Amino acid sequence: MSKYLLNRLLIAIPTIFGVTVLIFLAMRVIPGDPLQLIVSESDGIYVLSEEELQAVRASLGLDQPYYIQYYDWMRQVISGDMGSSFWNKEPISGMILRRGPISAQIAIMAVLLSWLIGVPIGMLSAMWRNSLMDHLSRVGITVFIAVPSYWLGLLIILFSVLVFTWRPPITIIQLWEDPLGNLSMTVLPAMALGLGLSAATARMARSAALEVLFEDYIRTARAKGLRETLVVWRHVFKNAMLPVVTTTGLALGGLLGGAVSVETAFAVPGLGKLLVQGMTERDWMMIQNLVLLYGLIYVIINLLVDLSYAFLDPRIRYE
Amino acid sequence: MTSKLNTPPQADNEARNVGRRTFLKMMAAGAAASALAACAAGAPAEVAAPAAAPTAVPTPEAVAGAGMMRPEGNPVRGGTLRTAFGVTMSHFDAHQGGGTHVLSHMYNNLVRNNLVDGLRTIIPDLAESWEVGEGGLSYTFALREGVTYHDGEAFSAQDVVATFNRILDPPEGIVSPLKANFTFVDSVEAVDDMTVRFNLSSPRPFFLNLLTPTNALIYSKKSLEEHNYDLREVIAPGTGAFRFVDHLPAEKWILEANPDYWDPELPYVDGIELLHVPAWSDRGTAVLTDQADMSWNVAKETWDEGKNRPDSVQANQLANFGAYWVFINNRESPFDDPRVRKAIHLAVSKQNLAAAFGTQELINITRWVPQGDPYATTPEELSTMPGYRAEKDEDIATAQQLMADAGYGDGLSGVELLAAAGPQGELLAPAFQDMLKRHLNIETEIRIVERALLGSEQQSGNYQLMVHTRGHSVSDISPRGNLWWATGGSQNFGGYSNPDFDALLGSIDVELDVETRVGQIADAQNLLDENPPEYLVGYTYHLPMWNNRVHGLALDRRIFAEWGRMETVWIDPDA
Predict the structure, then answer these.
(1) Architecture of the domain defined by A100-312
(2) 3-state SS assignment for residue B363
(3) What is the CATH number of the domain that holds B411?
(4) Are A31 and B453 inside 8 Å of each other by CB?
């Protein structure tokens, strides 16, 4: 197990390195100069001379060769300092620590919601295959997989504003400061993200359960006279969950991407919205660090998913 | 887009009827009360009334006597004003481009536009009164006694001198966007501790206007010296009605009332929370759902919704000094021919462009001088003017003749139209392209680039036609014209050169007689129509929305949009 873990961690290193190089280069290759945006703040009545532009560029460290800039960035990251925003000079780590819990909470709530909705629907649909309930749930699954979470978010916002004259709070309320206020900010984005994921989870749970239902050991369990509830709970459910865990793990990484658009739709001040703002402002340092963070989280989640197999399926051993 | 959408409400129209300068003259004659009553009255009208031309130079005494800012009604003290708009900024130095929609609450200018009369008059701020020297060649300001900065330092003439010396002659490494506004200021000197004099190389009738923008604020000499004249990294103490409390990046600013403010009546609220809400639709929904009390500019659809809820929110549309343009590179053939540029000016319908862009921003069809300026051409006059009127048949025929005279009767091909990704590239550029093709047989190819790249493309002259934005904090044609259209102007990127315009602009710069200046500015606009440097799509409207508890800012009768100070605001808890 430890050897497997070590191997996976070693593999993760080039993956993360690749991510850092790609995002570092992408920021410098795609059009859009952060200086132009910073300078355009000045009411449009002044244009910087080339010397002034160079001075600003130097103050941001952008006058250095790429490899020096990259080295400086990596040095900062390894020392736990993510540097400061080009735009407002604020430490990026501080902003991530303040906003990260909101994004993490939304992602976790979305996953929980997907399990609460998706797993029962998938299991019941499989148990009563080709029933009216099965047909209805499959239609629902198709619809919610097809609907983008961003669009769903906009619909929810529109409905809540026009009908209830209410919208989720637009300022950060941490869970430990005001639980109710925090939930009013995070529940709807979690719903927008979680409904699509619920559909994917239900589909995966249904197909996995159907597969398990036709296994010999299920027939044996029933032949032994085991009650159907026990058959389903002890044998079908547990074995059907393996692919669901995989799907959820991968989806959790996807949720990070989805959260960018959903946080924007709901104006939730999380990491996703910070990333969008960073892109708008061409805040390279912000984007680099957030993408690196997303990459790290994705790698860690995948690792955890792999490791969870061993606990869910005793036949799996990593040695 | 319908013509109704482009028509300012009656309050705005009547505001223009009065005019800033005319208003001052009337006020001096004791007619202010009736003028204000006229401004506030009336139901919305479909057709805008013509604005009266300014007829008198504002007398400094009358302006100085305009008094303090006292809002109407019975202001209630207490409460916190929550605003919704973008509040991020790359630094905190207002003179170097820092966001004064946030910073200005903590500072004062020498003079300012009056918040409570809809920005119609210029009133004292840190200057208590002023005198204009012989020939308008000097302005001497008597400064307000007993003013202190938030750190306890006393305000004096040395602060004004240090502030303007940095603007006029910035030390190495300091960027001074305001410098271009004050090129005619020879020196600023402290006559004594509480008197400061500006010596001008030539008179400027709009000099006081240049002191009113939110970024022309006063820093203390101590702050400037302590930070080596660079305040980008610090929030320097000001003299303003609000003090800094906290700043959560990309989240909000928290300001509290300054208990030692020099005007003991102000402010009425305990503080301001400036919430960071960059998306226009979120700003609107924040006001609609009472998460914010007001926003300077919201999305059109939320503004429309607000208009339908008069029991809880109010909304207005205000003239703004920023515009959409199609810049024309005058250095490149065939656009070096004024006839081709004028043909474009005549043939492309501003009404159609406004309609095409209506889902994004409301376009205020305006001439070269924006609405909100006393010298602006009225909407009624515009509605009959070639190039501006809705009826295009005659204009198109003239434009086609101009193209034929220039040798392009069969049209043009291979012209590049540069535009930013997003609505400008997706809505404005195709609409412009279509009208060029249909009316003048000019075939264009749209090149889309990131918005951040447009500036550098423009500066390097790497374009033929370019859809882009441009604005100025001062509405007067003189500072704008010198930057944008004068030969060699620092932002005349298209290389426009018109000796007649240059000569006229030179006269406009220094003309003190309003009657004469009215005529000169009309002539200058005629010259620009006849020989256009670029195509003006139109200035934009800003769409402020606020809930019914918010009073004291005269948002319902402002003559233009100013994202700045709010010390007269008060909140009615019972509304």
Answers:
(1) Orthogonal Bundle (1.10)
(2) strand
(3) 3.10.105.10
(4) yes
